[in-house]
C-alpha cells in the first residue's frame, strides 16, 4: 500500500472511530432540530466504510475515496448519506491521476463540497454542514497560498470549521429537516456542521 493510500485509510478509520464515539452526541443535537438519527446515520455509514477497508485493498487514493463515497450513499439514508457520499465521490474523482500536493488536495476538497452544494443547494447561513465546509475551504486555501504545508492547511481548515459550526447556533435553519421548525431551530447547533468538523479534525490528525 502506498504511503498516501495508507494515510487516507487512516483518516477514514479514525473518522469512523470518532463518529462512533460521538454518535450519541450527534443524535442528541439532531433530536433538538431534526429526527434524532444523525449519529446513528454517520456511525452506520462509516462502519460500512471500515468493513470495506477490511476486505479490499486499494492501489490509489481516488479509488479509495470513491468507494467510501459509494458506500455512504448506499448505506446511509436521509440527507447526510447522499451529501457526504457525493463529497467523497467527487473528492476522489478530482484526485484521479493527480499528484497529491496540498494545493491539489485543496482543489479536491472544493470539488467534493461542490457536490454537497449541487445536491443540497445550501448557502452560507442556512444552518447546514456547508456553514462548516465553506470557511474550512477558504482557510485551507489561505494557508496553502501563504506557503503552509498539508498539516498547516488542514489544521486551519479544522479550526475554521469549528468556528462555522459554532456560528450555526443562533441561525434559523433554511435547509433540511431543521427548516421545518422555522424560528424554533434558533439556539441549537447544527448536527451536520458538527460531524463535518469531526471529519476535518480527524484529517488534520491523520493526513498530515
Ligand atoms: P436527515 O435530516 O435526513 O435525518 P441527518 O440527520 O443524517 O439526515 O443529517 C442532517 C444534517 O444534514 C443537517 O444537520 C445538515 O447539516 C445537513 N443537511 C440537511 N439538508 C442539507 C442541505 N440541503 N445542504 C447541506 N446540508 C444539509
Ligand atoms: Mg436526522
Ligand atoms: Mg433522518
From TrEMBL:
One of its GO terms (molecular function) is glycerone kinase activity. The keyword Electron transport does not apply. It holds the Pfam family Dak2. GO terms for cellular component: cytosol. Keywords: Kinase, Transferase. Residues 6-205 form the DhaL domain. InterPro entries: DhaK_L_YcgS, DhaL_dom, DhaL_dom_sf, Dihydroxyacetone_Kinase. Gene3D superfamilies: 1.25.40.340. GO terms for biological process: glycerol catabolic process. SUPFAM superfamilies: DhaL-like (SSF101473). Coiled coil: none annotated. SMART domains: Dak2. NCBIfam families: dha_L_ycgS. This is Dihydroxyacetone kinase subunit L.
Amino acid at each position: 500500500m502506498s504511503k498516501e493510500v495508507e494515510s487516507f485509510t487512516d483518516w477514514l478509520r479514525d473518522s469512523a472511530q470518532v463518529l462512533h464515539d460521538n454518535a450519541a452526541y450527534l443524535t442528541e443535537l439532531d433530536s433538538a432540530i431534526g429526527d434524532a438519527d444523525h449519529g446513528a446515520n454517520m456511525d452506520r455509514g462509516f462502519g460500512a466504510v471500515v468493513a470495506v477497508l477490511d476486505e479490499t485493498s486499494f492501489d490509489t487514493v481516488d479509488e479509495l475515496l470513491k468507494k467510501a463515497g459509494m458506500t455512504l450513499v448506499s448505506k446511509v439514508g436521509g440527507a447526510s448519506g447522499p451529501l457526504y457520499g457525493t463529497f467523497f465521490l467527487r473528492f476522489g474523482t478530482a484526485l484521479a491521476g493527480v499528484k497529491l500536493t496540498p494545493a491539489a488536495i485543496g482543489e479536491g476538497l472544493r470539488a467534493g463540497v461542490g457536490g454537497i452544494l449541487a445536491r443540497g443547494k445550501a448557502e452560507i447561513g442556512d444552518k447546514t454542514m456547508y456553514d462548516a465546509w465553506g470557511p474550512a475551504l477558504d482557510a485551507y486555501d489561505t494557508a496553502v497560498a501563504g506557503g503552509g504545508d498539508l498539516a498547516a492547511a488542514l489544521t486551519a481548515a479544522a479550526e475554521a470549521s469549528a468556528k462555522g459550526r459554532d456560528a450555526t447556533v443562533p441561525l434559523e435553519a433554511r435547509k433540511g429537516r431543521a427548516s421545518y421548525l422555522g424560528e424554533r431551530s434558533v439556539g441549537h447547533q447544527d448536527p451536520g456542521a458538527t460531524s463535518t468538523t469531526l471529519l476535518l479534525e480527524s484529517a488534520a490528525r491523520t493526513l498530515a
